[in-house]
């Protein structure tokens, strides 16, 4: 139900359940967790997630599986999804959701747990849980405001409306729109940062990642700590020297 491939410096994770629009059964969520664990052992620089088929990235939690579950089960389900998506959020290298079609409910929550989102022009996204008498349970109420602001997030969650690709780009919910094939566009985007040194990439991401979680003075302290760590790396010495010597730096991830 989940395929994991390695292509050079990239790992490609594909939700592969097209008959259910790649809906997230609990087994699929566990498979995503196992795939992330496996990819963590690989020497890669980016992880791309997408869905099989023309139609959907992921239509959300498996509604057929949710019917008839007890409140107790649902809490365990929500916590499972949150745990697996948190693993993605803190994955060792940046992740890119290549949104090839619908990304609804848990599908959009999965995409929001990625570092970046690249969407095809026919992508449609939203958090329609309210229409089912539910609210998002896999991080959507917390990650969406961080991306688009509180009032807009509340509007999206409370109306459950569908957002097209252009609007998603305009409000910062997706990072880029793809002209052609969305996975190719995600790979091209990854190529814009995978050539830099891993320590700087990790430290930059960690610093930005904390920005909305802490007060400004604490965030500035974190930035001073992390930028000092970056400054002390061999890659920084190489990058600065290469600039002076007017040559391309040879980063060695140290
Ligand atoms: N779960 C299970 N099956 C699904 C889902 C889903 N989320 N979405 C689609 N499918 C299935 C359909 O049942 C259908 O199967 P079948 O052919 O056997 O009837 C097949 O996929 C194709 O779907 P459609 O015929 O509906 O395709 P359309 O092109 O007509 O419509 C849509 C596409 C608009 C995406 C439509 O399928 C749809 O609205 N899907 C549901 C979207 C949705 O509401 N997602 C949110 C689910 S709730 C959630 O994600 C988080 C809940 C929090 C849980 C926390 C506690 C654990």
Report what the structure shows:
- Its EC number is 4.2.1.17.
- The chain has 254 residues and is of the alpha/beta class.
- The chain folds into 2 domains: 189 residues, Alpha-Beta Complex (2-enoyl-CoA Hydratase, Chain A, domain 1); 47 residues, Lyase 2-enoyl-coa Hydratase, Chain  A, domain 2, CATH 1.10.12.
- The protein is built from 11 helices and 10 strands.
- The strands form 2 sheets. Strands 1-2-3-5-7-10 form a 6-stranded mixed sheet, sandwiched between helices.
- Helix 5 crosses helix 6 and helix 9 runs antiparallel to helix 10.
- It starts with a strand and ends in a 10-residue tail after the last helix.
Which architecture name of the largest domain does CATH use?
A: Alpha-Beta Complex
Structural class: alpha/beta
Q: Can you give the helix content as a percent range?
A: 40-55%
Sketch the major β-sheet: 6 strands, mixed
| Rg computed from alpha carbons, rounded to a whole number of angstroms | 19 Å
Query: CATH homologous superfamily of the largest domain, by name?
Result: 2-enoyl-CoA Hydratase, Chain A, domain 1
Organism: Pseudochelatococcus lubricantis
Protein name: Enoyl-CoA hydratase
GO molecular function: enoyl-CoA hydratase activity
Keywords: Lyase
Features:
254 residues; alpha/beta; 2-enoyl-CoA Hydratase, Chain A, domain 1; Lyase 2-enoyl-coa Hydratase, Chain  A, domain 2; four-stranded mixed β-sheet; 10 strands; binds octanoyl-coenzyme A; Enoyl-CoA_hydra_C; Enoyl-CoA hydratase; lyase
């Amino acid at each position: 139900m989940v395929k994991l491939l390695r292509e050079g410096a990239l790992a490609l994770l594909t939700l592969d359940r097209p008959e259910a629009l790649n809906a997230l059964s609990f087994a699929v969520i566990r498979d995503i967790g196992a795939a992330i664990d496996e990819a963590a052992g690989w020497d890669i620089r980016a992880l791309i997630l997408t869905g099989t088929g023309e139609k959907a990235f992921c239509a959300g939690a498996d509604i057929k599986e949710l019917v008839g579950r007890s409140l107790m089960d649902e809490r365990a389900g929500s916590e499972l999804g949150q745990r697996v998506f948190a693993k993605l959020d803190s994955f060792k290298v940046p992740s890119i959701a290549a949104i090839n079609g619908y990304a609804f409910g848990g599908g959009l929550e999965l995409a929001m747990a990625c570092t970046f989102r690249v969407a095809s022009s026919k992508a449609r996204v939203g958090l329609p849980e309210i229409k089912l008498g539910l609210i998002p349970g896999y991080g959507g109420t917390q990650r969406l405001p961080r991306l688009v602001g509180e009032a807009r997030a509340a509007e999206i969650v409370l109306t459950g409306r569908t957002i097209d690709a252009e609007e998603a780009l305009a409000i910062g919910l997706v990072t880029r729109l793809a002209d052609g094939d969305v996975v190719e566009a995600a790979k091209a985007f990854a190529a814009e940062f995978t050539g830099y040194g891993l320590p700087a990439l990790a430290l930059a991401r960690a610093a930005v990642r904390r920005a909305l979680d802490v007060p400004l003075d604490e965030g500035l302290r974190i930035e001073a700590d992390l930028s000092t760590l970056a400054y002390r790396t061999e890659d920084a010495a190489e990058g600065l020297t290469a600039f002076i010597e007017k040559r391309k730096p040879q980063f060695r991830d140290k």
